[in-house]
Amino acid sequence: MSKILVLAEKPSVGREIARVLGCKRNAGGALSGEKYIVTWALGHLVELAEPEHYGDQYKTWSMETLPMMPHKMALKVIPETSKQYSVVKRLLRSPEVSSLVIATDAGREGELVARWIIEMAGFHKPIKRLWISSQTDKAIKEGFAHLRDGREYENLYMSAQSRAEADWLVGLNVTRALTCKYNAQLSAGRVQTPTLAILAQREEEIKKFVPKEFHTVRADLGSFFATYKDKNGQSMIFDKERADALGEKIKNKPFKVTEVQRSKKSTPPPMLYDLTELQRDANKMYGFSAKQTLQIMQRLYENHKALTYPRTDSRYLTSDIVPTLNERLRAVSIGEFSPIVKDIITYHKQIARACVNNAKVSDHHAIIPTEQRADTLHMTSEEKRIYLLVVKRFLTVFYPNYEYNKIKVELTCEGERFDASGREILHQGWKRVYDFRDEEEEEEQTLPSFHQGDVFTCKNIQVKAGRTSPPARYTEATLLSAMENPAKFIQDKRMKEFISGGLGTPATRADIIEKLFSSFYVEKRGNTLIPTSKGMQLISLVPPDLKEPLLTAKWECQLEEIRKGSVKKEAFISQIKGYTKDLVKTVAASELKFTHDNLTKEVCPECGKFLLRVQGKKGKMYVCQDRECGYRRNISMETNARCPNCHKKMELFGDGEKKCYVCRCGFRQKADKFHAERGGGASKGAVRDYLRNQNKNQPPQKSAFALLLEQSLKEDGKKK
């Protein structure tokens, strides 16, 4: 009897699908049942071949071999996961298998994972596609009851393949060109570089900013405060003497109400979450990185089955989801949410109409809870935080608008104008669920009842000094916003209208930010992102076109058009090849220089060159300046241990008995003594991770080729 092969993206998902389908027999990298065999990838099992595959001339990095332009891009099996690939390939070619169900993640990258395996294995039997937005038993059963024809997703595959090949062509060619030209470990990419350029531009603005001192004048009128405003509505006074004189002029004088404005305002509930919006909120509220939030979301989706598919760019639901909402509401009726859910169901509250729009959902709808009740007791604190964020946002859209009266009062005193503003809440609406105060609301005060002509006496004067602030540095939250909407970074105003896509996709932006950290182009101070000297120099060295968000954003639009079938992959890749040639020429012709300004006197134990001191995401490191050497060693780890003198977080240096806590204020103490005296410091897990990284970052004493040769000789010896 023939069977249907099901290919999942990860073992955990594969086992869940196998359980639902009744596949219980272990088949070594697969689970078999009467009708189905379920196997899995380990993420990507197949990838694009390295340049060396196309000829020995590419084994050495040199400008003479650039640009690299393969006529047809080749695939290769990833060595580390080749064993699982062999299992999948054997099953794909098995005469027992009559057809395949692709059950990898329902998105562009998930399609690529499966299709490259299929292409590499030479599979030509019928293909169906499982396309689901949650991993609950119900969703899996319904998905298998309504499998789609695999041919519907050919264009999605073409889009994914185009993205991968474009990144290979641009990224590898420009990276080699920069590295060879400047003899430094430099890299560039079609999304990474314009993202770094956004940070570098802000850093330049901050450096050029000249602060100005200003003063504001506030009058204490007993039950409220009024602030001076000039004829342009500005409160800042840049002349201290004028500010002091104004304060003296109005002291103890009567203030007359000349105008009272009451305007009714209505704020609708915030839209449901897509991935980028969720990453932004998680960063603002909890300091989570974009990558961290995505990883948490994947666990909530795959392991807990509590939330729907995370890698979505939509904040809307399709109409077919609406009948399932009551079941989803009951699933989240726990703890603080129970009375809210009861209120929604009892009074038959409907989801906001604005949230349901079939036209604004392409692959996946917004992130919402599943119909399966979540077990929050078995969630980590981070998982619980993200889960509750999504649940709160989901519940708010069943409530009406938040309504209030905005009150603005204008007063005069001695011919000068003063303003006071506040609000009067009329209807709490969705804020019953989501106790959220915006910046404007935080600044407003409660005002008494006003009538035109009312008079108030000035009780006191506040003349406050301040300094104008430079633009704020980016956090991951604000950088995600900039990547999502890069139009304001386009210099040519006529071209802004062509921007409809962002830099990267919701699923890839977190990895791009992480790449900036791992390449030491950006470091983190608190919650802000600061480009390093290396990052700033790179932006001055790369070709101008590659820094510009316009082209990369247009590429994402073209990838979307390929998915829709309105643009051919060949036309897109031809354009990318031409662009790559121009980039390499620009780098080769440059007369600029690159300087290592973080060179130390520490010598690399592998190649003898001086090491660079860099700030990694979790601490300081030494890395070798030689790209081919690759040596790196941790110096210190940032901890949560607080200094007993200044109470700031300290760093942990050294290993073994030499581990020592060091603070910027000068405090220094051995870790063992610090823990013994205070019973605290960095957690055991944090220290264990630090030591593990220390070991992990020590490179092998012999090259990978030498180790492989040794192993081969040993095996030959055993055979003899």
TrEMBL record:
Annotated binding of Mg(2+), by residue: E9, D105
Residue segments, region Interaction with DNA: 187-192
Keyword field: DNA-binding, Isomerase, Magnesium, Metal-binding, Topoisomerase
EC number: 5.6.2.1
Biological processes per GO annotation: DNA recombination; DNA repair; DNA topological change
Molecular functions (GO terms): DNA binding; DNA topoisomerase type I (single strand cut, ATP-independent) activity; magnesium ion binding
Any one of the GO CC terms: cytoplasmic replication fork
Pfam family, one: Toprim
Entry annotation: catalytic residues: Y309 (o-(5'-phospho-dna)-tyrosine intermediate)
Known cofactor(s): Mg(2+)
PANTHER family the UniProt entry points to: DNA TOPOISOMERASE 3-ALPHA, PROKARYOTIC DNA TOPOISOMERASE
NCBIfam families: PRK07726.1, topB
Name of the protein in its database record: DNA topoisomerase 3
